[in-house]
Design a protein that fits this description.
The structure is a homodimer of 555-residue chains.
Chain A lengths: L10 E6 L2 E7 L21 E4 L1 E6 L8 H8 L4 E6 L2 H7 L1 H10 L6 E6 L17 H7 L5 E7 L2 H6 L3 H11 L3 E4 L6 H9 L4 E2 L5 H9 L3 E4 L6 H10 L5 E3 L6 H6 L3 H10 L4 H6 L3 H6 L16 E4 L9 E4 L2 E5 L2 E2 L34 E9 L6 E11 L2 E2 L7 E6 L8 E7 L6 E4 L8 E5 L2 H14 L2 E6 L2 E7 L11 H17 L7 H6 L9 E4 L2 E4 L4 E3 L2 E3 L1
Parallel strand pairs in A: 4-5, 5-6, 6-7, 7-8, 9-10, 10-11, 16-20
Antiparallel strand pairs in A: 1-2, 3-12, 12-13, 13-14, 14-15, 16-17, 16-28, 17-18, 19-20, 19-22, 21-22, 21-23, 23-24, 25-26, 26-27
Helix pairs in contact in A: 2-3, 4-6, 8-9
């Protein structure tokens, strides 16, 4: 399949030194100078498709290091990723970004990076590190770095105030490609965001918002949750300038094992009506050109021989995967060894607090009752609602246990501020407790539950493990995920982490938490840029107003 | 017209500080932050089209300096050119390139440059300067430089030997875009040329060669002589990746005045059946993206407000031309003053030889007759044929005058070698003589004629003028063009030079030279990369073999 011309035709592909030397019609001889034929593969019955390029993702969302990530995605035909190491940067700063770059060396997966632009996302939380204009300038000089990662703080961009505005200005001055994050932004605000230098968006869009973005010259990156027949139809009709990509953003390890990665997004788009060739172009030549990667994205002379053989374009399966001309996977199995990577010791000691004792899970209050802010969780969205409730006070503390509420506490765990924020949550667990250091974006220690004893025990498990997720009830560990690298990533394989995540998922069900995306719903309870009321180590965040608000509204 | 999505729709365009701030539907308000409305133009009845971008041209072919060039093309809607200053570089080296960059400052025409890759084209001639890998590395660092200019010596590329191969390697190492020149190259040779890093071609192509180039990932640049309905049809069908451009390459001043520039190529392509919107994309967004110029090529937020208003897309005419939001031309007339440019004194003294005396136009020979190589000119092509003829010898010299041949002499004029090469030409003038320093690619002094006295006089006029073209018969100057800057360019306006060129053209007719492109046919008689037998200051060049051959084959 020719991704450049959107054609299919029979052809010979000649590869030399890892690069496509020539593509000749099936009837022609292939007179390539100085090339000896080493090995010939008869690809009859297969389409040769350029290996897939993922233009926007966070490897940390799959909770593994780059080698394990490669082991999971290379057999699916994904050989290039442009990853934003936003999560690990929030914990470890530049050291985290360097870790990701070093861990990716020598893999049959080409890992390019974006500089995380919003570390931390806001000043309403305490992250493990800050990345400012100075660091941005340094990072943009690294050879692995292709772009400035998603600029989430669009208010800063529009007003020209704040860290994100400074970071963006530094990147634009450097001539960098700048990735966006513009949920629902439209009209003059969207135009101003683009004019400031941000030229892509991967957030959820309606067909109308998709059209507006393509007309304005943005690269539109559709992820799984955005895929819908009408959006695909409208976007495909306007994508005349290689500015439509399919991307993954966040893929959890168990989803990766069960359904796949970018290959799954590709199949889904086609199933929803996208032309198969156009869909493949949206995961090959389009993302390659977005980042100026003229050395890939098509099977053409001078480009890397990153090639997938598939029996069907409509139902893409990576039957053979070649990285730089070398067979690296076949029938879904890796056929080459991957280099080992040993993370530095500092990456294993990022949970820098003692386990919180049971008495930390108590909300002192005076009088007989108080009016308190409540985080109301929703069943099908990671957004929350801000509510208020009148709650009784017992023994000098809010009696949340008898009100069927969960107590939530976020402990700053990077060894910086020692801060802790408290909130009350309705619609989460009915029983037991969970603790997790995988808690966007600062990845502090979130502890949430119905019982102070269980909360303390879940927290202790996570702290002593060096990070991860734990679910406890009545003193029993029901499920857990060990994530000792930066407190968010495992050293093991995707299937192993998926297995552990399964225990944690089942435990959440046992504890009475039903949600379409339960882990993410808990993991972004701490995200102060996601509506409506969230909790960080600095306290409750009114996201709409962008301020910290007190838990108790009146005495 | 939206060049990104290939749509037309009614819209408001808001411009602030020279940049498009927003494009809103005709019914919507335009709530751009911090923008005050300064001036409103009602464009009803017009299409707003991005200003044209010429991806491949030599400004020197129009025989003027950048300010005069801008005065000619800006009113035609061309506001960006990516020019290869190949001609002036062959005379003045880096000084010539710097002159072009400096002369272009402050114009309402954005002039980007390519580094000429083949200065000189071969070692079979003496140019005024050489540009090697060292100079290439320096030049690629200049902010005006966007690419390495057309790599003409494809044999050097394919064998990896020679200056062009070294220059290409330096450019590829630098990550530069590399422009090609691959006449009739096909199959494995074309693939190898592309794999070496050359990714465009603007030479004449058949429909089949066009298809091969697009499939192989080249940017195909169609110039006037290449335009044909079937080529357009086939190329348009495959140009799915913004890799089809329309370009001018060489436009002579009188053609520019009479028919136009890139606007004429655009109209011609549409007349031959190209979809008007696709044709406009081939002169706007496609060339802009070819060179990574994300700040233009479309009317979209954040891009320069380089906009043309035209009443018709089918018959494109630049009724209003805005450069960075400022009206610079209207109804074909410039409406702003252009900055003056004074070339450095060294640019005016590049003809560094005394006028050759009459006795230099003599071919000594022994015996009674000789067999000599003859350059046979053709009527409709600038290619020549190599012939041999038996010629009488009289008074110790070949008697070419009685054989209806022209004598041609090429004098090295840069003050370097003092060399002179001689040839005999059939099918050129019947009478008189011409002299010209506009003689590709080294721009030495070509003198050609039927009479030694006329040849000496024509040569004297050109030498004393500091360069140009002169036609003389019987001691009378029939026509002439003054090109005192580097011997190839005038300081005057395009219409003025066109006028002079008209006198020279008419003189050629008077002297009996009939050709479809007479000036170019003479000007490339000295080009040692254009088949079949050519003449340089080092002698006759057998172009096919790439060697100097003697005029007299046997005594």
């Amino acid at each position: 399949m020719n991704a450049l011309t959107a054609e299919t035709y029979a052809a010979h592909v000649t590869i030399a030194e890892g690069v496509v030397a020539a593509v000749a019609g099936a009837q022609e001889s292939v007179p390539v100078r100085d090339a000896r034929a080493w090995d010939v593969l008869d690809g009859s019955g297969y389409f040769a498709v350029p290996a897939l390029v993922d233009a926007h993702l966070h490897i940390e969302s799959s909770m593994v290091l780059p080698p394990a990530f490669a082991a999971a995605v290379v057999p699916r035909g994904i050989l290039t990723v442009i990853a934003d190491p936003h999560e690990i940067a929030n914990v470890m700063g530049l050291h985290g970004i360097r870790l990701m770059a070093e861990a990716a060396r020598g893999l049959p997966l080409d890992v390019f990076l974006q500089v995380p632009s919003c570390v931390p996302a806001t000043d309403l939380e305490t992250s493990g590190a800050e990345i400012g204009p100075e660091e941005i300038r340094e990072l943009l000089g690294w050879e692995e770095i292709l772009a400035l990662g998603e600029v989430m703080d669009f208010n800063a961009v529009l007003t020209g105030q704040g860290r994100a505005a400074e970071v963006l200005a530094a990147a634009v001055e450097h001539g960098a490609i700048v990735e966006g994050h513009a949920p629902n932004l439209t009209g003059g605000d969207l135009a101003a965001y683009i004019a400031a230098g941000v030229t892509s968006d991967h957030t959820f869009v309606t067909p109308e918002l998709a059209e507006e973005r393509l007309r304005a010259g943005m690269t539109l990156q559709l992820q799984l949750k955005t895929l819908a027949p009408e959006t695909i139809r409208r976007a495909s009709a306007l994508a005349k300038s290689l500015n439509l990509c399919l991307v993954t953003d966040d893929v959890m390890p168990d989803d990766l094992v069960r359904t796949g990665h970018l290959d799954h997004v590709l199949r889904t788009a086609i199933r929803m009506g996208m032309d198969p060739i156009e869909a493949i172009r949206a995961v090959t030549i389009a993302p390659a050109m977005r980042f100026g990667l003229t050395d890939r994205g098509a099977i053409a002379p001078g480009r890397w021989a990153h090639i997938v053989l598939t029996k069907s374009l409509e139902d893409f399966r990576a039957d053979y995967v070649f990285h730089a001309g070398r067979l690296v996977a076949k029938d879904g199995e890796l056929v080459v060894p991957l280099p080992k990577y040993e993370p530095p010791e500092e990456a294993r000691s990022t949970v820098r607090i003692p386990p919180p004792a049971t008495d930390r899970f108590r909300l002192p209050a005076r009088g007989r009752s108080v009016t308190a802010r409540i985080i109301q969780m929703r069943r099908e969205s990671t957004y929350t609602e801000a509510r208020t409730e009148r709650l009784p006070v017992k023994d000098g503390a809010i009696d949340w246990e008898s009100s069927n509420l969960c107590l939530a506490a976020v402990f700053e765990r990077h060894g910086r501020a020692g801060t802790v924020g408290y909130g009350l949550v309705r619609g989460a667990l009915r029983d037991g407790a969970v603790a997790m250091t995988w808690a966007h974006d600062s990845h502090n220690l979130l502890v949430l539950g119905r019982s102070p004893a269980d909360m303390a025990q879940a927290a202790r498990w996570v702290v002593e493990t060096g990070g991860g997720m734990a679910a406890v009830r009545g003193g029993e560990l029901l499920g857990s995920v060990r994530l000792p690298i930066a407190g968010i990533v495992s050293e093991r394989s995707v299937p192993e982490v998926a297995e552990e995540l399964g225990t944690f998922r089942r435990a959440l069900t046992t504890l009475g938490f039903t949600h379409t995306s339960p882990i993410m719903a808990l993991g972004v309870l701490t995200l102060p840029v996601s509506p409506e009321l969230k909790l960080t180590d600095l306290g409750l965040v009114d996201v709409t107003r962008g301020v910290i608000v007190p838990l108790i509204m009146e005495g």
